[in-house]
Design goal:
- The chain contains two helices and ten strands.
- A hairpin with a 2-residue loop joins strand 5 and strand 6.
- The protein is mainly beta and 174 residues long.
- The chain has a single domain, classed as Hypothetical protein, similar to alpha- acetolactate decarboxylase, domain 2 (60s Ribosomal Protein L30, Chain: A).
C-alpha cells in the first residue's frame, strides 16, 4: 500500500545561500557541506546550472508499484547541468537533475560521483517553521519526506537515500 500524502503547514522562506562550486568538487558532498556549514537543516534547492566531468544519477525503470527496478547512469562524461532542484530535510539532501549533451537530455536522482567541471552555481533557500525528516517507507523501501514533531537527538544526519540502496533493500526482502 502506498504511503499517504504528507503536507507540512506553517513553512516560511528563510535565508538564501548562493554558491559557486569549483572544478573537481563532488556535487552532492558539496551541497551536504554547504547545508551543514550554513545551518540549512530544512530547505529547498531552488535552481542551479553548470557542468560536470563525471556523472552518477539513478532513477526508476517502469511504472510498477512499488518500484523494484532502477537504473544508474555514469556516462556520458562532460555534460551540462540544465536544471537542478531538491529538498533538504534534517540535513538530508535529496536532489534531482536534468543533464544534457549536444544531442540529448536525461536526468535522475543525484548520487555521489557527480564531479564539477568548470562550475556549478546553486541557489539554496532555508525553510523555517517546520521540522522535516526522511523516514523509511516499508512499501517502497525509500526514505520518504515527513513532517516531524521533534528530531531524534544525538545522531548524525542520515544521508543514505540512493535508489541503488533501495534496490538492495528490496532484494533482501525476496
Amino acid at each position: 500500500m502506498a504511503a499517504p500524502r504528507m503536507v507540512a503547514r506553517g513553512a516560511r522562506a528563510g535565508s538564501i545561500v548562493v554558491a559557486r562550486l569549483a572544478y573537481g568538487e563532488d556535487l552532492l558532498a558539496s551541497l551536504q557541506d554547504i547545508c551543514r556549514r550554513e545551518k540549512i537543516r530544512n530547505g529547498v534547492v531552488v535552481t542551479g546550472f553548470g557542468s560536470l566531468t563525471d556523472i552518477a544519477v539513478t532513477g526508476v525503470v517502469g511504472p510498477a508499484f512499488p518500484p523494484r527496478r532502477f537504473y544508474k547512469r555514469t556516462h556520458p562524461r562532460g555534460v551540462e547541468i540544465l536544471a537542478i532542484s531538491g529538498v533538504i530535510a534534517d540535513y538530508h539532501v535529496h536532489v534531482h537533475m536534468v543533464l544534457g549533451t549536444r544531442v540529448r537530455a536525461f536526468g535522475g536522482h543525484l548520487e555521489p560521483g557527480c564531479v564539477v567541471l568548470s562550475l556549478a552555481e546553486i541557489v539554496i533557500m532555508r525553510v523555517d517553521g517546520v521540522k522535516l525528516a526522511r523516514r523509511l517507507d516499508p512499501a517502497t523501501g525509500q526514505k520518504l519526506l515527513q513532517a516531524v514533531r521533534a528530531y531524534a537527538g544525538g545522531r548524525r544526519p542520515d544521508q543514505e537515500g540512493s535508489l541503488i540502496s533501495v534496490q538492495k533493500r528490496l532484494a533482501r526482502r525476496r
